[in-house]
User: What shape does this take?
Amino acid sequence: MISKCDICGKIFDSKDGGTICQGSCKKVFCPKCECESFGENEECRNCLKKKIKMTYKQALAEGKRVGVSHASEPIFIAQLCETFKCLHPGAKPELVYNGAIKKGLTAKQLAKLANESPTEYGDLMFV
Ligand SMILES: [Zn+2]
Ligand SMILES: [Zn+2]
Assistant: This one.
């Protein structure tokens, strides 16, 4: 079957390789693009990135367990959401956390949003 790569636009024969992402994007990748890193019935890097590996509650619990020095980005993000609860009473911390993870924001970027752009911060709930 002849397919067109959604990334580079190359036309290729699927018998030469290439993959269709099974995640939400359903993009077609030629053998030279991201498909190198995933096989059949797998998701591309972009879709995987959007997955929430740790829930808000898990991240908070994990933060308490490992302490600040060993905290990872999702933990910092969850703690920030918890901290900003008072500053942004309308923004549900759990939903903001999910949105920030899906968008791939860092804790630093999230803190900046919370301080400088309350509307955008709240909009993270609907990502
Ligand atoms: Zn390609
Ligand atoms: Zn994908």
In short: The pocket of zinc ion (ligand 2) is lined by residues 21, 23, 25, 27, 43-44, 46-47 (CB under 6 Å). The two ends are 35 Å apart (CA to CA). The chain has two domains: 2-41, 52-126.
